[in-house]
């Protein structure tokens, strides 16, 4: 066979693979509605209940990504800084709660000792 025929076969086979492969995958892939119909009733109910919450979480995440991208730093560093900031805020809140609980315990002890 001539070189032209070989090249022609190669181009046809490459086109079939490059175009036909994704088209076949798209053809056999089920839609979201078909997948939802395959769920058992409990999963359908839970999916409907949690759908709004997941959508809100995704929107919050996208909003945070937009904020991080506005920074001069890398998104990863901006995310790490925000995570560190939240962690320190939680630690300070926890420390304040522990301090208030300690003060309340001391006041209760004083009241108990004072009454006796």
User: Helix-strand pattern, N to C?
Assistant: HHHH
β content, as a range? under 5%
Shape: elongated
Number of helices: 4
Range of helix content: over 70%
Distance between the termini: 111 Å
Structural class, judged by helices and strands? mainly alpha
Total DSSP E strands: 0
Low-confidence stretches: none
Overall pLDDT confidence: 90
Q: Give the oligomeric state.
A: single chain
C-alpha Rg, in Å? 31 Å
Largest sheet: none
Transmembrane segments: 6-28
Membrane topology: Single-pass membrane protein
Organism: Aspergillus thermomutatus
GO cellular component, one term: mitochondrial inner membrane
Summarize the SSE layout with pairings.
Blueprint: H1 3-28, H2 32-38, H3 41-70, H4 75-115
Helix pairs in contact: 3-4
Sum up the structure in keywords.
single chain, 116 residues, mainly alpha, membrane
Verbal overview:
It is a single chain. Helix 3 crosses helix 4 (75-115). The longest helix is centred in the C-terminal third of the chain and has 41 residues, at 75-115. The model has no long low-confidence stretch (mean pLDDT 90). By secondary structure, the chain is an all-alpha fold. The chain has helices spanning 3-28, 32-38, 41-70, 75-115. The protein is built from four helices and no strands. It is 90% helix and 0% strand. It has a domain at 76-115.
Task: Briefly characterize the structure.
The protein has 116 residues and is mostly helical. It is built from 4 helices and no strands.
């Amino acid at each position: 066979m001539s070189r032209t025929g070989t090249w022609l076969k190669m181009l046809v086979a490459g086109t079939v693979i490059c175009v036909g492969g994704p088209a076949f995958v798209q053809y056999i892939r089920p839609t979201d509605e078909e997948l939802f119909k395959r769920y058992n009733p409990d999963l359908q109910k839970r999916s409907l209940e949690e759908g709004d919450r997941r959508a809100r979480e995704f929107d919050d995440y996208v909003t945070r990504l937009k904020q991080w991208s506005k920074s001069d730093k890398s998104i990863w560093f901006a995310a790490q800084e925000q995570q560190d900031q939240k962690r320190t805020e939680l630690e300070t809140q926890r420390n304040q709660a522990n301090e208030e609980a300690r003060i309340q315990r001391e006041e209760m002890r004083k009241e108990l000792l004072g009454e006796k």
